[in-house]
Amino acid sequence: MGRFNKSNKNNGQENMDFSSPENLGTLSGNYEEDIKWLKEIFKDDDSIVFRRLNIGVDGSINASLIFFDGLVDSAIIDNNIIKPLTELEQIPKEKSAEDIFLSKVVQIDSVKKVKDLDEIIQEITYGDTLLVIDGIGEGLLFSTKNFESRSISEPEGEKILSGPREGFTEVIITNLSLVRRKLRTNKLKMKYFKLGKETNTQICVAYLDNIAAPKTLKELYRRLGQIDIDGILDANYINELIRDNPWSPFRSIGYTERPDVVSAKLLEGRIAIFVDGTPVVLTLPYLFIENFQSNEDYYLSFYYTSFSRILRILGFFLTTLVPAIYIAVTAFHQEMLPAPLLISVAIERQKVPLPAAVEAFIMLIVFEILKETALRMQTNVGQALSIVGALVLGQAAVEANLVAAPMIIVIAITGITSILVPRMNAPIFLIRFIMLILASFLGFFGVTIGFALMLTHILSLKSFGNWQLASASKLNYQTIKDTIIRGPWYRMILRPRQLTGNAVRQKNTWRGHDETYD
Amino acid sequence: MMRRMISFISMILCCIFLSGCWNYKGLDDIDIVTGLAIDKDQGSDIYQITIEIVDTQTSGREGEISAKYIDAEGRTIFDAIRNSKKKLINKLYGGNMQTLIISKEIAEAEGVSIIIEELLRDGEPRETISIVISEEETAKEILLTDGIDSNIISYEIHEMITEDNKVTASTVDMPLYQTYNSIKGNGKALVLPVVRRINNINKNVVEGNGIALFKDDYLHGFLSPRDTMYYLFIVDRVRGGVISFPIGDLDESISMEIKDSKTDTKISSNQNKIYVDINVKVKLNIMEVKSQLNISNVDERDKLETQTEEYIEKHITELFEKAQSEYEIDIFGSGNLLYKKDPDLWRKIETHWDELFQSAVIKVKVEADIISSGVLKNY
Q: How far is B26 from chain A (nearest CA, A)?
């Protein structure tokens, strides 16, 4: 029921409701019966308010306002609904009385006629107010939403030095407005959906009409239509339900909490998914290089940010390979080390009881534990923890000859460089351990096997019909301008070709340069 | 999915169990060999080797790195190396060995090629280790001297030889692979650096002392450090060094630093006679003048250049003639030039090359260029 599948060719023209709640029927039109039924539906829920009104000159007509306490703006209900209703002298007797109420009596910007109980429930639980009047068959819904929300602030996880500092909040309307303000064009389309059978979460798919690839959009709608989950509390629910390569640790859908990032991705032909209740917005398709990109790359000098990107890519290799290479070199291929370095490491290794490979495993696990506790701890115990972590585990372990000093350096490099690529924390953690296991059994041979497997896997990754890494069929400036380096803006003439059918971004600059850039 | 998982896991398991002899060998399970000295007790025909290893036990985080020595005996060198293991917990690891010291008795009596081939067959030692000949009674004495810069004498010898070649032109740097090439190459001649033990401020230290000359792989004679420079001029291996000599009629000395040198040797044969034509182009800096010589004057400089040319020419000719008359072998590897030029001819004359060399006619031409006088105007 209501499942959105391949045969249902819905291209976004009608209101798509992917959720499939149990059908409660409609309002009967009989006032007393409807109120009774509504009270039955919301039985044992004390937060709902049934406000009885007697309207008309003689107060002979019964009416009821139904809303949830705390979700609504009381001032609006008092001044714009109750006041005009009670002051009403003439009750319209015409056939379309509800229209008169909506257009002439009540002073609310957004109003709606409803009959369907499921819809009524979804709306009043989101802060709307229902008005049921004796003698009028349909309920009237008024938008009276007013709930507490966080103010706009810079996202903790994506701080930058220069550039816009806005961040999304938990309210989808606010989030959409932040993007709308940046992209002031009618081409920006925002399609609403509801997902989650119990949560009825508001979802919005946003894209630029002439830039986003229609086949990607179609594929996205197909996948969204197949979701059959009771609740969606964060964007990652949707990410995992619709992503490609579901078992891969690498991302295939991007995420951000910044409106400037979403706007930039939309301009490159990507599609954004907003989810109510979370500041995280998904963007797709996702290319592998996005793991190493940061919005700040585009706000600072391209020399500097190109270098930063190279550092991030280097960081990825270091954080995954350094422990494995250390084990391979010290336990299998000592001849790879220059003599003075070999001697220094050997002197340190001589004093410690455990083999280097076991030591590496233990220290990496300890480091992961430290990292996890730092994330989970209450702020007021933070200082104690960092002292214990840094001093006791690092310095004391070396001085007590439990852990070799070079191992501490290796773990430190691994830990620091992992921070360079925050979007890859899941794959990094896995690859690092797999490489370490391979290195402990096979030395460099194992590292090479592991590296080849990793590359093969990354090359096979797709995101909504696009290869994540193997996209550049021919190598020229326009295909690498925004990958390992970040070209200057005046040379960023094309959008990523595989994402869009409308690749030319700077038409006037493009003209006459076809041979040069294509 | 399940099938793929199972095949992936079995691949990993195969890696673990079928990994052959590439075994995990922790750094704490090996003794790092830094140098090896080989002697032979001529009476009993038993090799006596001394192995220098890094002392990882007493070397501290703050303290200096020190070395340990192990003596071992055996009927062959490999036997002796394996016998040394009987005294040790850990396996010897030779991948970072840097110096091999051979006593002159062995070099004289049985040649160096057996030792070199043994090292090349062994997988661990690098092909870049330095091979030196001990001028002392035994090679062990050299290994047991004190180092000035480090306690590991093997590393000190290795560094000393590779650097000396560039600075003093008094020795050659012969890594293992070049040594082997020199023995096996057509018409090539093997030379190896010589070290001796001298006293330096109450310490016995090692000093490079010229080179050892070989006939095939047997020790044939020695060249003094001074002669070594002219030897290097002939074989075009001068990278630096100092020339000092008395200036003509004045009874004063001058010192010049060699900045660059290029030797072009041509060899030709005509009616069973070999002609060697040596052209040396050398660039020099004046370092020290003990006279009132006006070196900023062009004529004076030209005169000085001519004197330098004559001086170098004289010594190169002398050395060449000494090799012809005294050593009676081609120590310069000139035969290799002939082999490259005319392999057919070389094959014909190969057997009596040394006789031909003794009667070879040499012509030496040196072009000296004083590129910097080092004199400041208005000083």
A: 4
pLDDT of residue A147: 76
Contacts of A443 in chain B (CB under 8 A): 22
Q: Considering only CB atoms, which chain B residues are within 8 Å of A352?
A: 28
Sorted by sequence, the CB contacts under 8 Å of residue B249 that are 6+ apart come out as: none
Cβ contact (<8 Å) for A449 and B15? yes
User: ipTM of this model?
Assistant: 0.81
Question: How far B66 CA sits from the closest chain A CA (Å)?
Answer: 10
Q: Is A441's CB within 8 Å of B19's CB?
A: yes
Look up tokens 């490609």; give the residue.
A244
Of A347, A355, A445, the CB nearest to B26: A355
Query: Which tens digits make up the pLDDT trace of A312-343?
Result: 999 999 999 999 999 999 988 888 888 888 88
The Cα–Cα gap between B144 and B204 comes to: 9
The closest alpha carbon to A68, from A144, A12, A6, belongs to A144
Give the SS3 label for residue A70: coil
Residue located via tokens 């940010």: A305
- Terminal Cα-to-Cα distance of chain B (whole angstroms): 86
Smallest CA–CA separation between A331 and chain B, in Å? 4
Looking at chain B, which residue has its C-alpha nearest residue A440?
B24
For residue A494 the two structure tokens come to 């094309």
Pull the structure tokens for residue B232: 């290097």
Q: Is the peptide bond before A214 cis (omega within 30 degrees of 0)?
A: no
Nearest-angstrom CA–CA distance, A326 and A337:
10
Per-residue HEC secondary structure of A361-410 comes to HHHHHHHHHHHHHHHHCCHHHHHHHHHHHHHHHHHHHHHCCCCCHHHHHH
Question: Do B30 and B96 meet the contact criterion of CB atoms below 8 Å apart?
Answer: no
pTM: 0.82
The residue of chain A with its CA nearest to that of B53 is A343
Alpha-carbon span A478 to A515, nearest angstrom:
12
Residue carrying the six token digits 């040790």: B88
At which residue do the structure tokens 């940061």 appear? Answer: A294
Please answer yes or no on whether A441 and B30 come within 8 Å at the CB atom: no
Strand partners of residue A500: A212
Token pair recorded at residue B72: 């071992």
Q: Distances from the Cα of A11 to the Cαs of A3, A190, A215, A243, A477, in angstroms?
A: 15, 13, 11, 20, 36
Nearest-Cα distance to chain A for B158, in Å, is 12
Contact check, Cβ <8 Å, A331/B32: no
Which helix H or strand E contains B54, and what residues bound it?
strand B46-55
- How far apart are the C-alpha atoms of A202 and A120, rounded to whole Å? 15
A503 or B227, greater pLDDT: B227
Q: pLDDT for A80-119, tens place per residue?
A: 888 888 877 666 666 566 666 666 777 778 888 888 888 8
User: For residue B230, what is the enclosing H or E element?
Assistant: helix B225-234
Contacts of A402 in chain B (CB under 8 A): none
Residue A295 Ramachandran class (φ > 0 left, ψ -120 to 50 alpha, else beta): alpha
Cα–Cα distance for residue pair B260/B257, rounded to 1 Å: 9
Q: Tell me the per-residue pLDDT of B29-81, one tens digit each, with 9 for 90 and over.
A: 888 999 999 998 878 889 999 999 988 877 666 667 888 999 999 999 999 99
Tens of pLDDT, residues A173-219: 899 999 999 999 999 999 998 898 888 899 999 999 889 999 999 99
